[in-house]
Amino acid sequence: MNITNQRILKDDILKKKQITADTLGEGKLIEGNTLDVLSKIDDDVVNVGVTSPPYNKQEKHKGWLVKNVVYDVYRDTMPEPEYQQNQVDVLDEIFRITVPGGSFFYNHKIRWDRGNMYHPMDWLRQTKWTVKQEIIWDRMIAGNIRGWRFWQVEERIYWLYKPIGNKLIGKELRSCDAKLTSIWRGVPEDGRKNPHPAPFPLWLPARVIISILETDTLGVVLDPYIGSGTTAVAAKLLGHKYIGIDRSEAYMEMASTRLDNAPGEMSKIREEQGLHFVKGTFKDRKSQGKHVGKYRNTDDENEVIQPSLLER
């Protein structure tokens, strides 16, 4: 079957590893179980991915400020060991389809149930990925205002890396990206404007794509739990192909409509791009013979100035 010109596909029409860089076209939204669909994607296709999977919150840990997180056709109620093994299996399949040197950004959170704490590192250490960094997403709002613990306003974003050979570190980020630090502050998507129960804001996948793919064109961006299509929209507006997976037909249609209207969200992309800028880096100053130490001489010998090496 020729799938090149179709945006939305169903898992049951696809053969094993039928999704390749050549069959993607602009990008593909694929309806089906995440693990099953990933098995239909060829090796070494994806350059970067970003996702936020269902958190296995049992559809009851809602707090006082938010409704229960209930998805369209998926029940977020797995036994915890089964959930963690499923996430390991999904992440290992994503590892297979990611090019060497590629990255995957995995948004999750620390959870508690009956006094037990579940940390994403519990299962991330069981995957094939190298965990390159833990980023804190400061959402600046708390979903639960009871006082059993200090209000949890953060989630975690794990930068997972597929090494080239045994080189575990990978290439250095540009200064304009690295200066955004390991704490990302920004409120979640407004639920009154997005009917998906747990969308993340457009700036988040845009930041990942800009930082990892830099100015490259026609990279392939994956979101295996695409929901309302945020990652696909970011990829499209930044000039890349996308693969989005979800088992909900309603979410597929929502994402497709959003892709049609993507130019209307370009201002949010421009706002994020504006943050990826530095006037002068350490390397630039050094090559120009400028001072790069902690202090520099001034006309007033008693004045001490501490210049920023990342001048905005």
Give a description of the structure.
- With 312 residues, the chain is α/β, with parallel strands linked by helices.
- The chain folds into two domains: 270 residues, Rossmann fold (3-Layer(aba) Sandwich); 35 residues, no CATH class.
- 24% of the residues lie in helices and 20% in strands.
- It has nine helices and eleven strands.
- The strands form two sheets. Strands 1-2-11-10-3-4-8-7-9 form a nine-stranded mixed sheet. It has a two-stranded antiparallel sheet with strand order 5-6.
- Strand 5 and strand 6 form a beta hairpin.
- Helix 5 packs across helix 6 and helix 5 packs across helix 8.
- The radius of gyration is 21 Å and the shape is globular.
- The N and C termini lie far apart (52 Å).
- The C terminus is likely disordered.
CATH superfamily of the largest domain: Vaccinia Virus protein VP39
Largest beta-sheet characterization? 9 strands, mixed
* Structure annotation, total helices: 9
User: Mean pLDDT, nearest integer?
Assistant: 86
Write the topology of this structure.
Layout: E1 8-10, E2 27-31, H1 34-38, E3 46-51, H2 80-97, E4 98-108, E5 111-113, E6 116-118, H3 121-124, E7 130-138, E8 154-161, H4 175-178, E9 183-185, H5 203-213, E10 220-223, H6 230-237, E11 241-246, H7 249-260, H8 266-273, H9 282-287
Helix pairs in contact: 5-6, 5-8
